[in-house]
Specification:
This protein is mainly α and 165 residues long. It has helices at residues 3-22, 32-61, 68-91, 102-113, 126-164, and strands at 96-97, 122-123.
Length: 165
């Protein structure tokens, strides 16, 4: 990626993280607000999954597409699950052990994504375990595919540049 592409990716990632921290999620909501919050979290996760899949399909059809769209989509997927984890914990407390803040949720989503699993935050309730099953499948099926495409195309570009010299 050229310098302008890196700036676009970094800017998009910073904006996604900022958006993650400002989306209103309040404890104690009930009734229709609770249902609306759960629906919004599901739509956000579904949208992130669709975005990543769309970027992967575009990437597979053409080797000439810029990589930044896929990179941003992968980050959006991880942030979407962090938000879903946080919304679940706020909505149904005690679903996670050790998850109290948005930073905890982002940390947990990233440690799950990278299969680090320190154990300081973990699923305690059935709802959290179901959500994590979806997150793990997403990580393996979608994010791993996207990351593999990024690495393969970056390697191909390096090889092509070496041949041109």
């Amino acid at each position: 990626m050229n310098r302008a592409a890196w700036v676009r990716v970094v800017t998009a990632v910073v904006l996604l993280v900022a958006l993650y921290y400002v989306v209103p999620v309040e404890r104690g909501d009930a009734g229709w607000r609770l249902a609306l919050r759960a629906l919004a979290a599901l739509v956000f996760v579904g949208g992130a999954v669709a975005l990543v899949v769309w970027q992967i399909r575009r990437r597979l059809r053409s080797d000439q597409l810029p990589l930044e769209g896929l990179a941003v989509a992968l980050v959006a997927g991880a942030i979407a699950f962090a938000l879903a984890d946080y919304v679940l914990e706020v909505t149904l407390p005690a679903q996670f052990d050790g998850l109290e803040t948005r930073t905890d949720a982002l940390y947990f989503a990233l440690s799950t994504l990278f299969t680090v699993g320190f154990g300081d935050v973990h699923a305690a309730g059935q709802g959290a375990r179901v959500l994590l099953c979806f997150q793990m499948v997403f990580n393996i099926a979608v994010l791993a595919t996207g990351a593999s495409l990024l690495v393969n195309q970056a390697s191909a570009r390096v090889r092509a540049n070496r041949r041109q010299r």
